[in-house]
Structure formats: structure tokens, C-alpha cells
Amino acid sequence: MTLYAAKGVKKLYGEPCGECVSHTGDEAGTNQCPVCGSVVACASVDLDVREGEVLGIVGESGSGKSSLAEILALDADATAGAVTYANHDGNLLETDYETRRRLRDHDVGMVHQHVRDGLNLEFTGGGNVAEKLLSAGWRNYEEIRERVFELFERTEIPTERVDDPTTTYSGGMQRRVQIARALANNPDVIVLDEPTTGLDVSVQAQVLDTFRRVQREKGVATIVVSHDLGVIRLLADRTLVMRHGRVVEGGLTDRIMEDPHHEYTQKLINSVI
Ligand SMILES: Nc1ncnc2c1ncn2[C@@H]1O[C@H](COP(=O)(O)OP(=O)(O)OP(=O)(O)O)[C@@H](O)[C@H]1O
Fold first, then answer.
1. Where are the domains of the chain?
2. Can you give the pTM of this predicted structure?
3. Which of 58, 69, 105, 231 is most exposed by smallest CB count within 10 Å?
4. What is the model's pLDDT at position 198?
């Protein structure tokens, strides 16, 4: 059953002239409207993710992945379109500020590409996770502390570092704190934006392994966005390929990797073989 979906999601930057979508895209070879200069980050994106499933979105830099991820995580507005969630009526993009905040606190977690967007570096690592619990209504100090320790253990962050400032954590640990934060209130859906950016290769693998284990244990539906086919191959059951703000191909990840249909996907795969 579909848990979370996007329908006709459109995101334009600039002052659109009304013809931007028809002047851009795969055939035009650009996402920038030649008439008015607006950028079509997402043209009309449809996707769905089922309970426990991992959906990958892959594409080169500028293809619209982060814009889409932020909209799906209810962190940014779309120009048009709908995001739906099986446990909530209507279009989530049309909900009021409070409802959106509640959904972000309880139902939809996000791991941002850049640490500064996902964490308050002036807080301790534990404080960053506790903040998420507090905003979801947790009030008892002992219970919060216990939950933070549990999340640190689950995401393999040394618990003796819980009260250290987040600035003193390694890049891999900071990413783990973001994952712990995103998981804090047992969301149904997590959006991961470029989960390995800025990490050493060996650390990348460890962080992805941790995420994959936790994701499977909890069965949390995940949308993972990356330019890195290795990340997508490791995590995603199904994959969508984006280019110039459009989904140009979609299917089971194994099929996409072994038998890519679209010329662009073929190039993307050949470039890493
Ligand atoms: N705030 C903004 N104002 C104007 N244009 C923007 C803005 N944010 C993104 N864009 C443009 O929208 C397009 C899609 O950007 P987006 O960051 O969503 O792509 P991406 O696939 O995530 O790329 P990357 O991996 O480099 O982050 C790009 O052409 C980008 O320059």
C-alpha cells in the first residue's frame, strides 16, 4: 500500500513566464527557461513509496533532487502539486504551519545534505536529539535522556560523547546525530538528502550500513536522494532517475543498474563502471 506520494510536484525558481515547462526538459537539454531565465527544478514529479520501502532518486547535480527532497520533507513549498500521506487527509503542502510542524516532528524525518541545515552545532550531540523529542512534546528529563542514549546506541555514536558540543564530532558522527534525530519520534517516512556528502569513503560505508540496519529494523519508508549510484544501489529497492527536473526513468534498482532504458541512465551507469 502506498504510504507517501507526490503528484504533479512542480518547483520553479525565478519569475516564470508561463512557458517555462514547455521550453525546458530532456529534449531541450536544460532546466532554465530561455525566455525568462527561470529554473524548472521539478516539472511535474510523481512518485510513491510503500511502507518499509526505500525509494532512490538519482541524478546529476542540478537535476532537482534537493528541491524535491525538501518539498517531500515538508521543508519547502512547491509551486504546484500535492504530497499525500496515508495517515493524513488531503494535500500536505496545503496544511497550515502548525500541522506541517507536527507532521515534521512525528511522521516525516529528514537528514539534510549539509550539517548546518540539520543540526544546531552550538548544542551538544545529545541536545540536538533531545530538541527533536522536546518539540514532539516529551517533557520528562529522565525519559528524554534514556531515549537519547538509546538512539545514540542504535546509530552507533559513542554514548560517552553525548554531552560534547556537536562541533567536536567527526563528520560521520554528525551525520549519525542527524539520523538519530530523524528517527527520534519513530516517523513513518524519512527523507535522506545526499547522506554521504563530505564523508570519507570508509566512513560513508559505515554510515550507510548503520542506516540500512536501522531502516530495516524499523521498517521505515525512506526516500533517498543522491548523485552517487553506489548509495542508491546499496539502499534503494526502487529508483527514479531525474534529469532537468523530470523523472526520465523508474523501476527496480537492480533492473535500472543492469538494463537501463534511457540514454541518460546508460551514461550515468557507464560513467561509474
Ligand atoms: N534558491 C534557488 N534559487 C534559484 N535557483 C535554485 C535555487 N535552488 C536551486 N536552484 C536551481 O534549481 C535547480 C535544481 O537544484 P537542486 O539543488 O534541487 O538540484 P540537485 O539535483 O539537488 O543538485 P545538487 O546535487 O547539486 O544539490 C538547479 O539548476 C539549481 O541551480
1. 49-76+95-271
2. 0.95
3. 105
4. 86
Whether the Cβ atoms of residue 233 and residue 257 lie closer than 8 Å to each other: yes
- pLDDT, average across residues 91-112: 96
Tell which atom from ligand 1 comes closest to the C-alpha of 11.
12
Q: At what angle do helices 141-154 and 125-135 cross, to 10 degrees?
A: 120
Tell me if 132 sits within 8 A of 125, measured CB to CB: no
Q: What average pLDDT does range 69-94 have in this prediction?
A: 97
Any ligand 1 atom below 6 A from CB of 39: yes
CATH of 49-76+95-271, one of 3.40.50.720, 3.20.20.140, 3.40.50.150, 3.40.50.300: 3.40.50.300
Enclosing H/E stretch for 254: helix 253-258
pLDDT (average), residues 7-26: 95
Closest CA to 157 of 132, 143, 175: 175
pLDDT band, very low/low/confident/very high, at 271 (cuts 50, 70, 90): confident
Q: Is 61 in the pocket of ligand 1 (CB under 6 A)?
A: yes
Q: Tell me the β-bridge partners of 249.
A: 241
- Per the prediction, the chain carries an average pLDDT of 95
Question: Looking at the predicted structure, is the pLDDT value of residue 141 above 80?
Answer: yes
- Residue 245, pLDDT > 70, answer yes
| SS3 of the chain: helix, strand, coil, percent, to 5 | 40, 25, 35
